[in-house]
Amino acid sequence: MENQTTLTEFVLLGLSSDPLVQIFLFLVFFVIYLFTLLANGFIVLTIRADFHLHTPMYFFLLQLSLVDTCYSSVTVPTLLLNLLSEHKTISVCGCIAQMFCIHLSAGAEVFTLSAMAYDRYAAICDPLRYAETMKKGICVLLGAGAWSMGFFNGLINTVFALQLHFCGNNQIHHFTCEFPPLLQLSCTSPLRKQLVLLIPALAFGLSSFLLILISYVHIISTILQMRSVEGRRKAFSTCSSHLTVVGLFYVTGFIQYTKPSSVSSVVLEEMVSIHYSILTPLLNPVIYSLQNKEIKTALRKILGKLRFRSGV
């Protein structure tokens, strides 16, 4: 048995030890973070400002933008700070707190996507009862439920992390305190490592994915039964943005949590993490802005008003 060690801090090795590369990466991720805040902020302000967007679909889109803002804000500021710091340390409490917030945001995101899928199911499969099915109280409950599931996801991962045993090494080959790289430092048995990694991933990730899958099975079945080609096209168009966002998030998350240890690669893990925790929060509002006519129309109205006021 290896001697167990009580650690007081971890070292985040980050993406590079080259000072010039660190400066370049700082500028890149700072710009990405700035655009993420602006893009999601525009989505939130647009939905709040335009009365025509006060519908269940855009209520959940607004929540998705808030979750993405939180998700990015949990990871990017720490990354930026470490890129400029000589001592890239983080306390154990700070590491655990960051890990909790990351998993809370991830859990809230996947269940918000599930709620959005259910909204599309109600709109396409049962349009006559849509107003009753997705009334304001139900939307608020679904939104609160997504945050609650995110909280429990963070809590369970945190409890598992607090039960890990470490044997001296405190260097995390990552830029944030996520559970998988933290788990690699532990001298806990390999079987237990796999269990504590897969249990929350299956409980929350798979359950939310199944909810989305069931919704879209019914949606596709209903669309295929439509006789009108225009009706099919319109129905598919209302789902295209959501499907793109779901694909971006779940594919990268699936790679991160199901990759066999035999193909372990620090670079691959970091690239996957960058994609789903930094790029995805930026891409989500861009996807909805480009593919959604109502969002584009509302944005044009707001920008037009701003130009008019600035001209005056």
Order of helices and strands: EHHEHHHEHHHHH
Number of helices: 10
Taking the sheet with the most strands, its summary is: 3 strands, mixed
Proportion of residues in extended strands: under 5%
- Calculate Rg over CA atoms: 21 Å
Biggest sheet, spatial arrangement of strands: 2-1-3
Describe this structure in a few short sentences.
The chain is mainly alpha-helical and 312 residues long.
Features:
312 residues, mainly alpha, single chain
Q: Any overview of this molecule?
A:
The radius of gyration is 21 Å and the shape is globular. α1 runs antiparallel to α2, α2 runs antiparallel to α3 and α3 runs parallel beside α7. Helix content is 78%, strand content 3%. It starts with 8 loop residues before the first strand and ends with a helix. The protein has 312 residues and is mostly helical.
